[in-house]
Amino acid sequence: MSDFAGLKALVTGGASGIGRATADLLAARGARVAVLDRDVTGVGKPLLAYRADVTDDTSVRTAVERAAEDLAGLDVLVNNAGIGAQGTVEDNDDTEWHRVFDVNVLGMVRTARAALPRLRRSSHAAIVNICSIAATAGLPQRALYSATKGAVYALTLAMAADHVREGIRVNCVNPGTVDTPWVGRLLDAAPDPAAERAALAGRQPTGRLVTAAEVAGAIAYLAGPLSGATTGTALAVDGGMQGLRLRPA
Ligand code: NAD
Fold first, then answer.
1. Where do the domains of the chain lie, and which CATH numbers do they carry?
2. DSSP alpha helices (H): ranges in the chain?
3. Tens place of pLDDT per residue across the chain (249 aa)
4. ipTM at complex level
5. Which residues are marked as active site?
6. 177 Cα: distance to centroid of ligand 1 (angstroms)
7. Is 13 in the pocket of ligand 1 (CB under 6 A)?
8. Can you give the pTM of this predicted structure?
9. CA-to-CA distance for 155 and 247, rounded, in angstroms?
């Protein structure tokens, strides 16, 4: 497929997991792709790599500008960089709440703010925010993380409304539990990683973890020309977790 031929995309957090799978998929489908990450180790051709931390507005602006210059434009922003947090409201103090909101919510605001002037010049402009089933599912032990993703969901709808008349579509993807290095680190820290993996898989009606490639496919759909009439939506990629309302297997 070469449906992204001629399009230029920027993927934040594109050095690992969902972001890397997305960058590789968009490149394979013909896009010129830049990755913005705080650690760009291992990102090579055909991807362009820009080191920046989404909590630092200056570093984001510089990286987005450089990427847009090197790509000779920008059509697609995939806002994917994010971090996890566990626990109830009693388990994390204000400092931790600010830290995680700074990455997961303000990080997306900063990259969008930097990218919007470029996206306005595109005739195929799309933003895809990586949200989570945590935004709406009421997961236990995920108060802070869920609150950040709830904010990402609301931000997606508001941005879609603000920019629709400018021809910029804004959607989000809501993954379930995805087999990425992040989840690998969580499993490694569990007392029994194999049992924990089975428990996470069993929580999804399909009985397995989602793959990063499956999330990338949904992101590519929302970023590409086939979804030209779609804006202000959330696409679940969660093994049926939310839509089917089934008890865990
Ligand atoms: P990952 O840890 O494998 O990759 C995240 C990438 O983001 C890394 O390359 C990391 O360096 C980068 N990053 C983190 N903080 C950054 C910062 N401050 N500035 C720049 N780059 C930064 O994680 P993943 O599982 O691929 O998750 C990617 C996104 O998907 C996140 O937004 C996450 O909330 C979301 N998500 C993941 C899952 C899952 O189960 N893995 C489920 C739902 C949503």
1. 8-237 (3.40.50.720)
2. 17-28, 57-71, 94-101, 107-119, 134-137, 143-163, 181-189, 193-202, 212-223
3. 789 999 999 999 999 999 999 999 999 999 999 999 999 999 999 999 999 999 999 999 999 999 999 999 999 999 999 999 999 999 999 999 999 999 999 999 999 999 999 999 999 999 999 999 999 999 999 999 999 999 999 999 999 999 999 999 999 999 999 999 999 999 999 999 999 999 999 999 999 999 999 999 999 999 999 999 999 999 999 999 988 866 554
4. 0.99
5. 145
6. 12
7. yes
8. 0.97
9. 30
